[in-house]
Amino acid sequence: MEQIIGRMATATIFIFLAALAFPSGLRAQNDAAKTFKTNCTLCHGEDGSANTPTGKALKARDLRSDEVQKQTDAQLAAIITKGSGKMPAFGSKFSPDMIKSLVAYIRQLPKK
Ligand code: HEC
Questions:
Q1: Is 64's C-beta closer than 6 angstroms to any atom of ligand 1?
Q2: Distance from Cα 84 to the centre of ligand 1, integer Å
Q3: Which of 18, 24, 60, 97 could be stapled to 55 by a disulfide with Cβ–Cβ 3.0 to 4.6 Å?
Q4: Domains by residue range for the chain, with CATH
């Protein structure tokens, strides 16, 4: 029994250290990817194409398209924060930092 607890404690410490060692920039990107997946894909699709039943019904644009990508980071961040048309506002749900990470995530969608 003591051995099992010891092993569990070692595993916990190991996971903790691994999380700390992870470069924080990369972690922010991963968080953005996760956040996008859980909050945005319903309408925008995993790849940002909006090729989903909801995306089509609401006429969301392809996030990879020039029309979207030519907008500035500040413009995209404002749309995510305040919403636009049928796009819900996320300003009360996410920190400005997370919204910045989401914009960065949208920026790299065309490169996928
Ligand atoms: C309920 C469906 C829905 C959800 C959920 C949603 N969006 Fe949108 N989004 C839209 C629609 C519809 C538009 C087009 C808005 C318009 O016509 O002005 C849009 C527009 C945008 C735009 C501007 C692109 C353009 O058309 O110029 C960005 C950026 C964006 N969404 C990001 C996000 C992010 C990031 C999330 C998740 C945090 C998200 N959206 C969640 C429906 C949604």
A1: no
A2: 7
A3: 60
A4: 23-111 (1.10.760.10)
